[in-house]
Hints:
By secondary structure, this protein is an alpha/beta fold. The chain has one domain: 3-Layer(aba) Sandwich (Glycerol-3-phosphate (1)-acyltransferase), CATH 3.40.1130.10. About 45% of the residues lie in helices and about 15% in strands. It contains 6 helices and 7 strands, in the order ααβββαβαβαββα. The protein has a 7-stranded mixed sheet with strand order 1-7-6-2-5-3-4.
Amino acid sequence: MTFIRSLLYAVWFYVTLVVIGLICMPICMFSRGAAMSAIRFWCGLQRIGLRVLCGIRTEFRGLEHLPKGSGLIAMKHQSTYDTIAPFLVIRNPGYILKKELLKIPVFGVYASRVGIPIDREGGAKTMKLMLAAAKAGLASGQQIVIFPEGTRQLPDTPTDIKPGVVFIYNELKVPCVPIALNTGLCWQGSGFLRQPGHVIFEVLKPIEPGLTRRELTQRLKDALDPATERLVAEGRAAQGKHATPREVVKPTG
């Protein structure tokens, strides 16, 4: 049953992406606002599709901690869904993303309108370009979104803070807002199966600007690790409550 539901959702995902993407593309290529509206509409359809087709409920908590204007957001990363659902609650996100995503048909056009592409092998030059784009986005009121771990992790993996978030935090000189989540329980990495369950995104209290690298790293870990553990435990309890004996999702790690 999980495979069939996942297959139906995969069809929903790509059909809605192509249809909405192609219909809206002419104007979205020239208007960031139009691109953002089209993306939000598509992301809302993904939330509905996951709920109806896969039995995945999405909840947002702590939204009062989100920046009202420009800011920096450091989000845990367990799933592709982490790049989709936040569009529904973050006002004007500017995602720092891999430049390879710009090559994906249809999707790449929209990613170029709302993202800050980086070359992971680009070294210092990439960091300078990323910083310039982030500062420009900040000046226009964007909330810069970065995944401090750099890549997707399993739900039980402790937070491993990479230098990129520290660099951009020090240069932008704005509060850093952590977001914990448990998406990997239902949509793990780039895998195909979508397990029923309760996905939670929790916005945590902002971390003030001006901290050293060691201080920021520790503060992020102290905020993200216990919150993520709590959300993962809550998600597993929800999956165990509603699953049949064959569908119970066992803890990973």
